[in-house]
Structure formats: C-alpha cells, structure tokens
C-alpha cells in the first residue's frame, strides 16, 4: 500500500516537473490562455458595434432634421391627351342595345432634349454628444430645352391633345431640405410649383412630386423647342444624385469634401482635386448610354436604377477604426505571449501562467481605453494614450518578473512597434491588405530566426539509434 502511494507521488512529481520544464506544456498553457482571452475580446467587439449603432441612430436623427439624401429627377413635360372608350349598353325600355362613347384623359411624359446641371456643394459636420455626421448645403442650377412632343408615334391626333393643360413635373426626395422656392423659367416666363400629394400617375412612392401651374400655349413646345432653367437650394446629407433624363445630360459637381465616393452605374467623365482639397467631377451621358426612351405614355417607369452622383461619407470614423483595431487583438495577444515565451525559453526564466493572464488582460484593456477615450477625443489621441498606458504597464510588470531592464525594454519596444504597425494598417484603405501581409511575413521571419536554436526536447541521438536498430534487425 505504501509502495503504491510512493509510486503515485513520484508519478505526480514527474508530471509537475515535466509541466514546469516542458516547452510543449508552456505552449499548451499559452494557447489556452489566448483562447480564454478571446472571450473578453469578443465582448469588446460587441460593445463597439453597440456604440456604433447608437451613433447611427443619433446621426439619422440629425440628418432627418437637417435634410436627407437628395435625388433629383426633372423637369418633365406632362401633356394630357384624350382617348375614347366605347361600351355597349342595353336599354330596358326600348329593349335595344346601343354604343356609348366615353372620353378618358391620359398623359404623355416627355423628357428634355438637353439637360445641363451644375451643383455646388458646401459640406460641414454636425455634432451631438460624442457623435459626428457630415451634412451639406447644395445650390443646384439646371438648364436645357424641350423638343416638340411626338404624339404621332402613338397615333394620337392633334385635336385630341390638350395643350392648354400641359404642366411641368419635378420629382425629388427631401422636400424638407428645400431652402428656396421652386420656380422654373420657360421661354422667358416663370412658373411656380406646388407639391402634388394626390398624384395618381406617380410611380415613385419614395419620391415627392412637384407640379407647375398650366403652361401658357405660347410657351408649350408645340411647334418648336423651348428653353428652360431653374435653381434649387437644398440642405441634405449622405448623398446627392441625379437621373439622366436628357437626350444629352451634362452634370458638373464641385464640393469642398475631401473624400467623395461617386456612386451609380455611370462613371465620371473627368475629375480633379480643387485648391481647397475638395473635388470637381463631370458626367456626360447620352440617351444611348441608358435603356429608356425620351417619352412615355400613361405612366412613368421606375428609373431609380439609373441614378448617379456622389456620397458624402466619413470614410473611417472612430468606431470603425476601433473595430478594425480590435480585429487584430488576437494577433497582438498571440505575438506578445510569443515574445514572453521566447524570452522564458532562451533565458530559462520562469513565468507563471497567472502572470501571462495578467499581461493578456492588460492587452485587452487597451481596447476599452481606446473606445472610451475616442468618444471624447480624436482617434489618434485615444490610440496614443491607450497604447502608452498599456505599454508602460506591461513593461513595468515585466521588470518585476524578469528582474532586469534588458528584456522589459525589448518587450516595450516590440509592443510599440506592433501597435504602430496596426495603426498604420488601420489608416490605410486601399493598401491595408498588402501592408498587413508584408508585415506578418516579416514577423514570421523574425520568429523563425530567433527560435531556430531552441531545443524542443527531441533526442538528437534518436536518428542514430534508429539507424543502428535497423542495421541490427537486418
């Protein structure tokens, strides 16, 4: 019985000795701690998403009060015409059938022959609590001309066209953001517009319709082309877009916004950076560039898919940067633990798993500091404060573990380089993957070089013994 207990005790002592001295055991413990620290790191990423959703809610509220996205579509010439419908009815008194003709008023919609639009967009940032949003004020000027409508293609007689009830339509979003009266100059005469809330032929539930008063016969392009021009001033946010309804559509947009994102199915004809760091973009579109005609009868189709323009967005705000930074948390923790592991292995200094855990928690705390500070300051300042605090804490803690300044200073330098490398990647957009891949490749090369002389516990004589045994068996 005593012999069995002694054997069991010796076995436990051997396991503890192996566990303390084995490199494999250290790697297993270190891997388990890294996985354990992924739990708080995941919770931090969820916190970032929650704060980002809160920011988006506040931004949407600010944008809604200032002005939403702008989509402009017009002007459109709307001309009513008569159609006739015959129905057969039965007279109960005479016991005979007869035909009754009913006149139905329908509408033709005609797009401009030429449409030239210039938009001057002045941007600014609005702030509420800790959240920012980009808004703008846009001055839009449009000019062009209408050709004579082609009713003959639909076999509509001239006497059935109600020219005296012709009107103009402008379809747009964000009526709340309009800061000027909507007036259009046609052939030298000015026409005002009213919101048409009861538009039966409006095929755009998401677009508001503005309709002018009846056009004077002298201004209707009945026999010859008529020129027009109008100006609008908008408060808006997020984006400004147009639909190319002109047979030839030219759009020129200038703005002081430094990070434009042009959107839609049509690319810019030309673009340049202005002196104030903004941009000037030009589009030129022909009717052959899009698959809809210049005139429609009865109803208008949905043309939203042809919209193009510019988004005014903040490329990477604080929460997006914090989220991207947190995605590298696994890398930071893993590499930091690897540095301590190499120091422990090469210098034979003992580091307890609890000390690894404390270092890992300090690394996780970097992200909570980063989020909280960035809400009250710039991301750069928050990153510097959080990084310096964590690096100093881990360096001083390493001094108490490693008993000298040689290795702690190396650890502090390594962490500084690692956080600097991640900060550079976060700032990059187009080259983030390239720079990150090159950086990780270099780190892997350094680790391979440093660890090349580590004794991983394999018996160097084993191959010779194995060869000898094979020779004996032969």
UniProtKB/TrEMBL annotation:
Keywords, ordered alphabetically: Membrane, Transmembrane, Transmembrane helix
Membrane found in the keyword field: yes
InterPro entries: Uncharacterised_IM_CreD
Coiled coil segments of this chain: none
Pfam families named among the record's database cross-references: CreD
Listed transmembrane segments: 23-44, 328-347, 353-370, 382-401, 407-426, 431-450
Gene Ontology cellular component annotations, sorted alphabetically: plasma membrane
PANTHER family associated with the record: INNER MEMBRANE PROTEIN CRED (PTHR30092:SF0)
UniProt protein name: Inner membrane protein CreD
Species name: Kordia antarctica
